[in-house]
Amino acid sequence: MVESKAWNWDIVKGEHEKYWQEPAVESYYLINRWLSQNKSDFLDLGCGLGRHTIQFAKAGFSTSGFDLSETSIKKTKEYAKESGVQVDLKVGDMLDLPYSDKSFDCIYCRNVISHTDTAGMKRIVSELKRVLKKDGECYLTLGSKQTWGFQQNWPVVDDNTKIRVEDGPENGIPHFYADYDLILELFNDFEIVNIFHIEDFYTKNDKTFSSFHYHILIRK
Hints:
Elements: H1 14-19, H2 26-36, E1 41-45, H3 51-58, E2 62-67, H4 70-83, E3 88-91, E4 104-109, H5 118-131, E5 132-144, H6 148-151, E6 156-158, E7 161-163, E8 174-178, H7 180-186, E9 191-204, E10 207-219
Parallel strand pairs: 1-2, 1-4, 2-3, 4-5, 5-8
Antiparallel strand pairs: 5-10, 6-7, 7-8, 9-10
Helix pairs in contact: 3-4
């Protein structure tokens, strides 16, 4: 497996930082879904600046936030204090989660677990299964092999993984890319509730770009 490497959150400033403090659109649906299922023990896996950690804590979940970056955990602690919520925060590697078996009802990992190679992905999926309770759910995203990143002439790790090489907080971080058949193989020990293939559009320097991700909801 490749060595895990954290986002460089130290260079995320200004409007870019504000962007990563805004919860993703599907998070509101997940809060309602999981509250309706009486789920309460929530893990924000790869919490970044804590946008979903704080959001779920405010919604009444017993919330844990986890990230490889010490900077992100420090900023999440500050955000939690400002927001007046209690959360459990840990620094560590998602290849070896520091939680007991069957700790969580629900896990959210957006644009996180794909920061490894194929061997690492299999290890992470095993860890998700270990820390989820029976009938626990996990919502996750994976980069698609149809997205622009997989087409770049970046260093190749394996058939599904490249090392991102560009200016920014993800420079030097491995990126795993999937297709539908690979998703079915990876999560064959789970019930797959939904798989969506979503194209996101954004504008930068007056140019329009897009990227494809799989959004996947699984149940143990």
